Amino acid sequence: MLIGRPNPIPSSEITPESLYLNRRQFIGKGAKALTVAAAAPAVLVACDRADAAQEELTPHELVTTYNNFYEFGVAKEDPSRLAHLFNPLPWTVKIDGLVEKPGDYALEDFLKPHTVEDRVYRLRCVEAWSMVIPWRGIPLAAVLGRAGPSPSAKFVEFTTVHRPSELPGQRRPVLDWPYVEGLRLDEAMHPLTLLATGLYGKDLPNQNGAPLRLIVPWKYGFKSIKSIVRIRLTERMPLNTWQLMQPNEYGFYANVNPEVDHPRWSQARERRIGEFRRRPTLMFNGYGDQVAHLYDGLDLTRWF
Known about the structure:
This protein is an alpha+beta fold. It has one domain (13-295): Oxidoreductase, molybdopterin-binding domain (Sulfite Oxidase, Chain A, domain 2), CATH 3.90.420. 17% of the residues lie in helices and 22% in strands. It has helices at 17-21, 23-33, 60-63, 78-82, 107-111, 140-147, 185-188, 241-245, 288-291, and strands at residues 43-44, 92-97, 103-106, 117-125, 129-139, 155-160, 180-184, 194-199, 202-203, 213-215, 228-234, 269-272, 278-280. Strands 1, 4, 5, 8, 9, 10, 12 and 13 form an 8-stranded mixed β-sheet that branches. Strands 3-2-11-6-7 form a 5-stranded mixed β-sheet. Mean pLDDT is 86; it is low at 1-50.
């Protein structure tokens, strides 16, 4: 499946949140209508991940215009304002490190063997704001399984594209470019972890991490690295970019935990974008039933 940049969607054509969240309409009609060119038949997941599908979706316009993507700039409006400068095609993903089948994969070959899924997930950012977004993508576990992790592999390191000519934020030393993130291998193989290729039924916009980004819904948003060009399996825990830049504020795990405050603000409450009132932050962003066992015995105040 070749991922291209979508045409802008007029606000009049954005699916109303109430209709998109109606399971019977979404699953019944969507399963018949959704097709993916040159890919395996699409499977529509019954999006009841921690009841996220029961919540009102964040409007498409807000999802695509209020972003953290420092490669374009540090202001929330910079990614959508400058997204036209970035050309995500053609795209290649390198998979290497402790794998049995390393290689450079063209995006269409990388995605073609896998089933595309639609999932509604919460996205919680460390600045105490959140969204509910209908993502489209493939389970990361399917890709890693195809590459064949070696027995000694314990972690997965991800790297964002580095193109200062197209990504003006990378021309400034705001971060140590390129952006790097990491997961434990068991976190990466968890069924909730998604390699996203789209949102709201459309291909992923440039400002949201086209053409391929990570979604780890129980962690803060900076773990969901965008525009991935490399996936490397390692034996040692990789240092992520924010961990290197500000280790007292950002740790490796970044699990949503309302009991551990950021040094400069509380994480106990959050503001859903598009709403005025704040709401209590949920442990593991509401996905505790599925992921809490991954951290049995781990001090989440120390390993934040």
